[in-house]
Amino acid sequence: MTESGRMVRQIGASAVSPCEFLGVVTGSEGLAWTIAGERRNALNKIRNQVAEMGGNAYVLTQTNTVTFGTNTQADGYACPK
């Protein structure tokens, strides 16, 4: 995870009203040793992408874990600090 990605937090859908929607981001991982590791790595990719867009928060909208990996999707936001 990047340094700016570390500053991105997950929020609930009910907390987005003061935030600016930036776009949909996705993260996939299939090479971790465990399913938990795959999920963590996929979420780290989400956080990095949101940071690259200038955001500081995301709402997780989908997580799908199958035999060969984990795919996640989220809405990225820039929220007041």
Task: Report what the structure shows.
The structure is a single chain. This protein has 81 residues and is an alpha+beta fold. The protein has one domain (5-78): 2-Layer Sandwich (Translation Initiation Factor IF3). Helices cover 22% and strands 40% of the residues. The chain has one helix spanning 35-52; strands at residues 9-10, 20-29, 57-66, 69-78. Strands 1-3-4-2 form a 4-stranded mixed beta sheet. The chain is globular. The mean pLDDT is 90.
Structure at a glance:
The chain is α+β, with helices and mostly antiparallel strands and 81 residues long. It is built from one helix and four strands, in the order ββαββ.
Q: What's the pLDDT, averaged over the residues?
A: 90
**Helix percent band:** 10-25%
Shape: globular
Unreliable stretches covering 5 or more consecutive residues? none
Instruction: Tell me about the largest β-sheet.
Output: 4 strands, mixed
Q: What's the arrangement of strands in the largest beta sheet? A: 1-3-4-2
Tell me the series of helices and strands, N- to C-terminal. Answer: EEHEE
Radius of gyration: 12 Å
Let me know the number of strands.
4
The CATH superfamily title: Hypothetical protein apc22750. Chain B
Which class in CATH terms? Answer: Alpha Beta
At the fold tier of CATH, the topology name is Translation Initiation Factor IF3
Question: What is the SS-derived class?
Answer: alpha+beta
Total number of distinct structural domains: 1
How many distinct helices? Answer: 1
**What is the distance, rounded to the nearest whole angstrom, between the alpha carbons of the first and last residues?**
21 Å
The share of residues in extended strands comes to 35-45%
Secondary-structure arrangement, i.e. CATH architecture: 2-Layer Sandwich
